Amino acid sequence: MSYEEKGTWVYLVTSAGAYAVYLAIVLGRVLSTPVAEVSYISVLLWTTGASIVASIAGRVLVETARPSDSHRSDVRDKEISRFGEHASRWFVVAGAGAALCMAMARWDYFWIANVLYLGFVLWAVAGSVLKLVAYRRGL
Amino acid sequence: MSKPTRITNSIRTLRFAHDEMTQAQLAQRIGVTRQTIIAIEQGRYSPSLEMAFQIAQVFKVPLDEVFQYPDGEAGP
What we know:
Chain A is mainly alpha-helical. Helices cover 82% and strands 0% of the residues of chain A.
């Protein structure tokens, strides 16, 4: 497995894991508090920050356990990266479009922030999955 | 996603004919990762024309001795 493929696995796990933690905390609060009063900003920022730190730490750990031949990305890595990001960009577009409609309809900030966050998470997860499929099955 | 390539290649045979060159050695000669050579050999990745020529140059053979395309598969 190449350095970039291992990095894609780490990114997938940390992105999905951070969002799962965020959902667990915020959904717990939604059950006991009106949505307009739910405190989600600090959780969103902390889980986003934690996923970045975990991604860096995870990459170091994986390389320590199973060192790669090279840490350089080559033309195939770049093509796969472009393919994954291009194919999954629609999640960001859909999230932004949904947030725009919700803002025009004067929805609560909670929903607008969360639909944007969901769009970014789906973009990250779908992009990573597509890249991993391309690494395994071909491009 | 695009379907796997129809291009076949003789890289594995050529490597063995050239002092049992390893995938890592070939990868180093053309500036890619060993995983990319593995993917090309297994038909999971079509290299660019430039990379194809680089591979042929390493083995000092014409391009069509390294890569082959089945007859009658070309588009209009």
